[in-house]
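This section describes the prediction task in plain terms. A model, or a person checking by hand, is given the sequence of a single protein chain and must write out its three-dimensional structure as a string of tokens. No templates, partner chains or ligands are provided. The sample shown here is typical of the held-out split.
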Amino acid sequence: MTTSIPARASRTQPPIPDDDFEEDDSYYPQRMPSSAIRYQDTQGNQVIQRGRQRIVIHNELPPKRRTHWLLILGTGMLLMFLLYLGVNWVGNWWAMHQMDASYGFPRTYQMDAIVYPGDSAANPSHYIFLTLNGTIEIIELPHGDSAHARIYKGPALLSDNPALIPVTGEFKNVRGKVEMLVHIQSQVVVYVNDGIQFKPQ
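The expected answer:
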């Protein structure tokens, strides 16, 4: 029994067309129908019009967007408020720095005075005015001698930060006796000299 082998197709033989094959136009790029009209307007801008759609290509740069005046006003007010806070903070800091440099912490003020009969320019009495725990205390060293030191308790300070309030003192001759005047902000507390020590008036 012999089997016939089909002969190989020649390379030069054209392919046999398939009658069932039909070409489809979708396989090929199609140029879209265009009815666009291009022209230039009176200002020299290029215009592309397709039906009711119109595109204008401007030659100059687009106009700058204007900022609304409320935004400018709001920004200015915010900057002024921040400037006020900054100036206020710097002012408070500077005042506190001056207090610390002048009176230290706790607030302390010292001075010498000729008060008692035994005092002299060489050996005056020494006074330390101190703000301690919100209370004024005055330390007296008669004739500069710490062995006979006295402590006068002053008034309590009613404030938010009493420890930061400085106290100062001065001595004035009133009717032949030297009185001690204690200055606490705008308040003055007078201590009367009885010849031996001071007593609050």
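For orientation: Helices lie at 69-103.
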